[in-house]
Every structure is written in structure tokens, then in C-alpha cells.
Amino acid sequence: MVLKKYNINPDLALERQKCTFDIEEIINIFDGGKEKTSQRRKIEDVVLKSGLCHDDVPEECMSLKERYENAVRKSCFFSKLMKTELQEITGIEDFETPAIRRIADALFKDISPFLLHLGMFVPTIIGQCTSEQLMIWLPKALDLQIIGGYAQTELGHGTFIRGLETTATYDADTEEFVLHTPTLTAHKWWAGGLGKTINHCIVVAQLYTKGVCYGTHLFMVQIRDLDTHMPLPGIKVGEIGPRMGFSSADNGFLGFNNFRIPRNNMLMKHAQVQKDGTYVKPARHGKLTYQTMVFVRVTLVNEAAFNLSKAVTIAVRYSAVRRQSEMRPNEPEPQILDYPTQQHKLFIGIATAHAFQLTANWLWNTFKSVLSDMKKGDVGTLPELHALSSCLKAVCTSDAALLIEQCRYACGGHGYMLSSNLPYIYSFVAATRTYEGDYTILLLQTARFLVKAWEQAEAGKTVTPTVSYISRSLKGEKNSWRSTDEGIIKSFQAVAAGKIALCVKSIRDRMKSGLDYEDAWLLTTVQLVDAAEAHCRSVILETYCNEVRRLTKSSSDNVKIVMHQLVTLYLSYWTLQRTGDLLRYSSISEKDIDFMQRQYEELLQHIRPNAVALVDAFDLRDEILHSSLGAYDGRVYERLMEQAENNPMNAEPVNQSFHKYIKPLLQGKL
Ligand SMILES: CCCCCCCC/C=C\CCCCCCCCCCCCCCCC(=O)SCCNC(=O)CCNC(=O)[C@H](O)C(C)(C)COP(=O)(O)OP(=O)(O)OC[C@H]1O[C@@H](n2cnc3c(N)ncnc32)[C@H](O)[C@@H]1OP(=O)(O)O
Ligand SMILES: Cc1cc2nc3c(=O)[nH]c(=O)nc-3n(C[C@H](O)[C@H](O)[C@H](O)COP(=O)(O)OP(=O)(O)OC[C@H]3O[C@@H](n4cnc5c(N)ncnc54)[C@H](O)[C@@H]3O)c2cc1C
């Protein structure tokens, strides 16, 4: 749809006049500098001017098939644009992924069927192929001569990868692998793009050679003819059916009937099968084939931040425009943003988007540093990265989904309209809590690491920096509550340490009472998930505080003030959310809690005048927001009426069902 131009709503205009800081400064901080902001905007301009974002009818009014076809059309033209015009027009050779990621949302209100190509297929080629394999597949994938996906999950197993049933049996006579789907539950299920779009796919299967099963490995498999796009003989493939979101992502199913692929199609960077069928196991670490999942978990923290920033921009702008009820008799109806309860729903969303964005950037740098260690043959930092990416993916996607839903509640009835875009944003982020490792499962992975770290620290060994608080706790360091940034972080670390200690004790007590380790662990898993979540909170709080301090060193005083107000809001919010834990594991008193409550409420008031400017500082163009409630001009009612009038249901004054059913019913002739 082409966005109509309106004058700025006067309430929003006034809000912007109240702003105390230069929003461009905050925009630059999050982009990584002025240069990066200008580069991102150039890319956005090119895409927006391309006409590709235009839909003749709103996406939500299309049938599922039309939506899919429309998304394919846009993905193809967008890919062409990325390869040609974007480079020519902007002169930027090396596209920054965040900029491409952001502007992709101007094209796709839902999901591009090519998402998995870029998000998992290409990264798996980069991370799992030998240099020879890389030379064959990477240029083709980048040039979109082949389009791929990632088929790991099966109908019967998603979480437990070791339980996957698809087999890849090596035939040394022909130097081929035979892929087979032995049961109903072994069918690949869910892979994005698999249903209708892709012609290649990374398949995760149990490797058998010389009669021995060596566990899951990755295989490059062509599933459709490159010319006709027909499934190849021996392949059964299709779309799994309508779902809560991801409507245009053609998630698919896939079965193999003794389907043969060349030996070289096993991705052999880490493990190999030689021509005679001899298996060579990975030299360094047993879980290197899980690397793409770690990569995606890292990027999902960024997704949580970005999508939350969209939702909170919509809800804050709407709340500045919407007037409802009265505070005092006979006074004009206030903007709903003036209600402290509304501020309580929304300002934490702004602070959380900042916290997650800065944590995502920090995690990305950690990921790059671990990759560089691994290139040098050192896998020592991998367990910590796995633990960090697991808990951060779990907690950030989960918190973001809750806060996005809260943004929808904050918009009352209009938030329920698809045209608000909040339901789309929610259904996308809700899925991120499950895919790429379910919330509970990933926290249990982190818990494994924490229990080990506890045991190491107990044995007097040095532990990694993110868990150094465990050593301090074991040395008997007592927590004394202070309501400063550092003081609060220390207390959250004391909570995490206290919870990990209790888990270790529970496991040991249960073992003393005769249980084996597995059962003792299993019965402690509720506490273990809780401990991993507490650890993750302390990591986010610490990273957020450190990063804001670092990034605002040379900022203007007013930017420092407002950014720090948000940090304090975030710390106060979580203190108040976790008073039970803090009373148990830190020296916080009831008086301290009263103080934190008052501080929190005062902060809501301090942030209020800057609220609209703070969401403007996410710099999200209307074309990216796709929202009747959240456009920059605040013309909410005009847009709601506009989209109602454009609803295809209103194209005819009387629907044919009146003549077919209602009239006969009215006349008793049905
Ligand atoms: C080119 C032009 C294109 C144009 C395109 C146009 C359109 C573009 C549009 C947008 C552009 C934007 C692009 C970028 C966007 C990025 C977003 C990306 C979105 C991607 C969408 C993804 C969709 C979803 C995909 C999926 O869901 S794939 C399936 C994922 N599945 C899972 O995650 C399964 C979870 N389960 C597991 O991971 C494992 O089973 C388990 C739970 C970890 C257990 O494994 P296992 O049983 O083998 O191990 P354990 O016994 O538990 O542990 C043994 C030890 O191993 C350690 N361990 C485990 N895992 C790891 C690991 N990963 N790394 C390191 N170590 C690991 C574990 O800790 C144990 O250690 P120990 O020391 O305790 O023994
Ligand atoms: C929109 C979407 C897109 C997807 N895209 C892809 C894709 O492109 N490629 C792909 O391969 N997969 C994809 N998936 C699949 C996804 O990765 C899995 O659904 C996910 O990993 C969860 O696995 P599951 O469905 O088997 O859940 P289950 O493991 O069956 O989980 C169900 C419940 O059981 C609990 N549970 C399971 N095991 C344990 C345990 N050991 N301890 C305690 N609790 C447990 C879980 O916590 C959860 O509450 C996608 C999924 C979705 C929703």
C-alpha cells in the first residue's frame, strides 16, 4: 500500500517539542556511528524507492497462496536489487547485515520464503564445508543459482537431535550416501522454504558407514530439478499447512526413499567419510556440526531487540495520540501515555529494547572472537559461548514476546487489528521462543555449564569471566545491598550464585538418598531452569550497564542522562520483579524495596516527556513499521478508516451470502 501523507497529529508534534536530547545522537550510538547511520539510510532509500514494497491489496487481505506468491515475487526482486542496484547506486560494496535485515521488513510484513537461505543455508555452507566444497556451493548460493534451507527437525523429534531417524548410509561401491526416511516420524518437518521454494537443502541425518552409526551429520541435498522445479525421484516434499505466523515461509515436510547423493555431499569440514567408508571423527569438538544453531541463536537476540523496538514504537506513538477517560472531573481526556500504568507497560519495553540490542551486539562480538579462536584450533571458549547464546536466546526471545504482547494490550482494541502490525510482530517473536532450541531446553543447556562451573570453582580452578561471581560466592563473599548499578548487579549475581548452589546441593542430596545422577538431575530441572534464568538476568544487567557507560562516554550530557534513566529503570524494574529472590539471597531490606519502588515511579515521570523521542530514536520508517497505529505522523484514526474502506469485504454493498442464505432464512425458505 502507498502510505497517504498527512500533517503530523498535534499531540505528537507537541511531544517532539518536549524532547530534551538530540535523537540523532542516540540513533548513531545504536547504528555504530554517524557513517553507519548514513549508510543504512542510503540502503533504505534505495529499497523504498524501488517500488518493491508496494502491494495492490493489504497482505492480510490476500489468500495464503497469494501471500506466498507475493512474498516469492518480492524475495526474487529484492535479491536482484541486492546484487545489482543497491551496490551500483549506493556504491556500498559490503552490505551491513543489520541494514539489510531492517529494510527487509519493509517488503515482508510476514516472512520471506528465502529467510532460511540467508539465515541458515549460507551460514552452514560457510561453517561446515571443506574449502573445496565451499568453492562449489558458496558462489552458487550467494548468486542464488541454488536456493536452500535447513532440514533438521522431524515430525517426531525437534529438540533431541540425537534421536533423529533419517539415515544416510554410505555405499562404498558407488561412493554414495543413501538417504532414507524409515518411519512416519522420520519425515523432515518445519524447514522454512522447503514446502515450495527451495531446490537444495542441508539435511541432518544419522550417518552409517561400515555398519556403524556415527550420529547426526550434515548433507547437501538437491531436492528439486533446477529447471522444472519438480521434486526429484525418491523425494516426497510439500507444505505442512497453515500456522500461527510464518504464513509466507512455506515451512515444509520431506521424505526420502533410498535417495542417493555423492559422497562429497556430506559436509566434511569437521568429520569425514573416506572413499572406502572409513570414518574420521572431528579432531577438536564433538558438537561442531551444531555451529549454525549457535550462530542463529546469537542473531535471534538481535531479532528480539529489533522486533520489540518496532512494537514499542507503535504502542508509544499510539498512546500519545489516544485520549481516553478522565483524571479529574470535567477536565479534557488525557493522552493515555499520561497514565503511570501505561508508562509502566511501555517504558520497560524501550529500556529492554536497548538492553537487548546492546547485549546482542556484545554477544555477536563474543561469537566472532570464539570463531577466530576456533580458526586457530582453540575450542576452549566454545562451551561458554554455547551457554551464553543458549540462555540469552531463551530469555531475550521470551521477554520480547511478553513485552510485545504487552504493547498490544496497551493499544486496547485497535492493537488487535492486523493493520496495527502488532499481531504479526508477536507471532514472529513467539516462534523464536520455540525454534532454534526451545526455551526450557536451552536454559537446561546453560544450567549444565553453570553446575560444571560451580564444581570447577569448588575445586579451586579458575572459571570464565561471566561466572566469576561463583568463585566469589564460594569464597564466602557476603552480599550487601546497594541501590547503585554495580550494587544491583552484584545482588543479581548473588541470586544466581545462591540458586546454582541450591541446585548443586539438591542434586547431591538426591544422589546421597540413592538416586543416580540422571534422576537427581531430572528432579532438579525446575530449579536448574530457574538458576540459568537468574544467571542470564545478571549477564544482561551487567552488559547493558557496561555498554551504555562505554558508548555514551563522549555523548552530550542530555543523552547520557536519558540513556542512564533507562538503565536505572531497567534495574529498578527487575529488582521489583525479583524481590522474593533478592530477599532470600541478598541483604535487601523492605526499606530498600520501598525506595526502589519510589525510584521506579519517579523514573516513569522523568522519562515521560522523552518517550516519543526515545522511540523516534529507533529510527524505524513507516514502511518498516507497517502500522496504522504507529506511523510517524500519528494519524491513527485516518489510517484505521482508510484501511477499513480499502477492505475488499467492502467492495460490494451486499455480499452474495445474503441472497444465498440470509434472505432464505429470513423468509423461512432455507
Ligand atoms: C542472497 C540474497 C538472498 C535474498 C533474500 C531476501 C530475503 C531476506 C530476508 C531477510 C534478511 C535477513 C537475514 C538474516 C536474518 C537472521 C535471522 C535468522 C532467522 C532464522 C530462522 C530460523 C528458523 C528456525 C530454524 C530451526 O529451528 S533449525 C532447528 C533447530 N533445532 C534446535 O535448536 C534443536 C535444539 N536441540 C539441541 O540443540 C540439542 O539437541 C541439545 C539440546 C543441545 C542436546 O544435544 P545433545 O543431546 O547432542 O547434547 P547433550 O548430551 O545435551 O550435551 C553434550 C555436550 O555438548 C554440549 N553442546 C550441546 N550443544 C552444543 C553446541 N551447540 N555447541 C557447543 N557445545 C554444545 C553440551 O553443553 C554438553 O557439554 P558437556 O560439557 O556438558 O558435556
Ligand atoms: C516457525 C517455525 C519454524 C521452524 N523452522 C525450522 C527449520 O527451518 N528447520 C528445522 O529443522 N526446524 C525448524 N523448526 C523446528 C524447531 O526447531 C523445533 O520446533 C524446536 O526446536 C522445538 O522442538 P520440538 O518441536 O520437537 O519440541 P519438543 O521438544 O517436542 O517440545 C515440546 C515441549 O516438551 C518440552 N521438552 C522436550 N524435551 C524436554 C526435556 N529434555 N526436558 C524438559 N522438557 C522437554 C519442551 O520444553 C516443550 O515445552 C521450526 C519451528 C517453528 C515453530
From TrEMBL:
<feature type="domain" description="Acyl-CoA oxidase C-terminal">
    <location>
        <begin position="486"/>
        <end position="667"/>
    </location>
</feature>
<feature type="active site" description="Proton acceptor">
    <location>
        <position position="436"/>
    </location>
</feature>
<keyword id="KW-0276">Fatty acid metabolism</keyword>
<dbReference type="GO" id="GO:0005777">
    <property type="term" value="C:peroxisome"/>
</dbReference>
<keyword id="KW-0274">FAD</keyword>
<keyword id="KW-0576">Peroxisome</keyword>
<dbReference type="GO" id="GO:0071949">
    <property type="term" value="F:FAD binding"/>
</dbReference>
<dbReference type="InterPro" id="IPR012258">
    <property type="entry name" value="Acyl-CoA_oxidase"/>
</dbReference>
<feature type="domain" description="Acyl-coenzyme A oxidase N-terminal">
    <location>
        <begin position="22"/>
        <end position="147"/>
    </location>
</feature>
<feature type="domain" description="Acyl-CoA oxidase C-alpha1">
    <location>
        <begin position="290"/>
        <end position="451"/>
    </location>
</feature>
<keyword id="KW-0443">Lipid metabolism</keyword>
<keyword id="KW-0285">Flavoprotein</keyword>
<dbReference type="InterPro" id="IPR009100">
    <property type="entry name" value="AcylCoA_DH/oxidase_NM_dom_sf"/>
</dbReference>
<comment type="similarity">
    <text>Belongs to the acyl-CoA oxidase family.</text>
</comment>
<dbReference type="InterPro" id="IPR046373">
    <property type="entry name" value="Acyl-CoA_Oxase/DH_mid-dom_sf"/>
</dbReference>
<dbReference type="GO" id="GO:0055088">
    <property type="term" value="P:lipid homeostasis"/>
</dbReference>
<dbReference type="GO" id="GO:0033540">
    <property type="term" value="P:fatty acid beta-oxidation using acyl-CoA oxidase"/>
</dbReference>
<dbReference type="InterPro" id="IPR029320">
    <property type="entry name" value="Acyl-CoA_ox_N"/>
</dbReference>
<dbReference type="InterPro" id="IPR036250">
    <property type="entry name" value="AcylCo_DH-like_C"/>
</dbReference>
<keyword id="KW-0560">Oxidoreductase</keyword>
<dbReference type="GO" id="GO:0003997">
    <property type="term" value="F:acyl-CoA oxidase activity"/>
</dbReference>
<dbReference type="InterPro" id="IPR002655">
    <property type="entry name" value="Acyl-CoA_oxidase_C"/>
</dbReference>
<dbReference type="Pfam" id="PF22924">
    <property type="entry name" value="ACOX_C_alpha1"/>
</dbReference>
<dbReference type="Pfam" id="PF01756">
    <property type="entry name" value="ACOX"/>
</dbReference>
<dbReference type="GO" id="GO:0005504">
    <property type="term" value="F:fatty acid binding"/>
</dbReference>
<feature type="binding site">
    <location>
        <position position="153"/>
    </location>
    <ligand>
        <name>FAD</name>
    </ligand>
</feature>
<comment type="pathway">
    <text>Lipid metabolism; peroxisomal fatty acid beta-oxidation.</text>
</comment>
<dbReference type="InterPro" id="IPR037069">
    <property type="entry name" value="AcylCoA_DH/ox_N_sf"/>
</dbReference>
<dbReference type="InterPro" id="IPR055060">
    <property type="entry name" value="ACOX_C_alpha1"/>
</dbReference>
<feature type="binding site">
    <location>
        <position position="192"/>
    </location>
    <ligand>
        <name>FAD</name>
    </ligand>
</feature>
<dbReference type="Pfam" id="PF14749">
    <property type="entry name" value="Acyl-CoA_ox_N"/>
</dbReference>
<protein>
    <recommendedName>
        <fullName>Acyl-coenzyme A oxidase</fullName>
    </recommendedName>
</protein>
